[in-house]
Fold this sequence. Notes:
23% strand; lyase; uroporphyrinogen-III synthase activity; EC 4.2.1.75; 4pyrrol_syn_uPrphyn_synt_sf; Uroporphyrinogen-III synthase; elongated
Amino acid sequence: MVGVLVLRPEEAARRTAQRLRERGHDPVVAPLLTIRATGEARPDGPFDGVVVTSPNAFEALGPADLAAVVALPLLAVGERTGEAARRAGFTAVTAAAGDRIALAALAPSVFVAGARLLLVLGRDHKPDTPSLLEEAGFMVVPWIAYAAEAEGALPEAAVAALGRGAVSVALHYSRRSAGLALSLAERAGCGEVFRALRHLCLSEDVAAPLRAAGARVVEAAAVPHEDALLALLPADGDS
């Protein structure tokens, strides 16, 4: 059995924790970001499609907002976001390869030229995402629908697990949360122990802050999908 620190927002972390238990591992859920709706009104339609850059968007959208767009074709940045879209009720879902460059490259095969697209973003989004889609030939209407708010301290469960050596692996899903984990672990007095873990990351972009901080073992999934990330763990809970 491997102790695994799951560093992602609460709802998603609990789904991952269940998958880890089914594989014989011992997860410690440690959310560092809380997803909240910004309260910004949804832009007026009509729209020809929806583009979403994170599964976190679906945690913040209310029933009325979902009902207004759920029948539209949706382009997701990656399969993880695509899966969240399907759980939210979207049926015409296409997933890109996991980053905004791939998203913009795939858009012309999903939407007609000149389509008016609702781009659902978080407050801390990559600033060039709208322009990449515009350069691909679309009318883009950005909507800052949610914010991922940082916690001020490493969760007590994580500090305790690190202190007693109960975890040997950390799972990282975003560059921002990886950097936040490093700083909060340092603040909690367990920075060295945290950096000594085996850090498994959804992509090389996510891994970058950990490598820069001198974490000893940092690995990135072959593709930015949770199945590929979990495949880096020992099978059936073996150490």
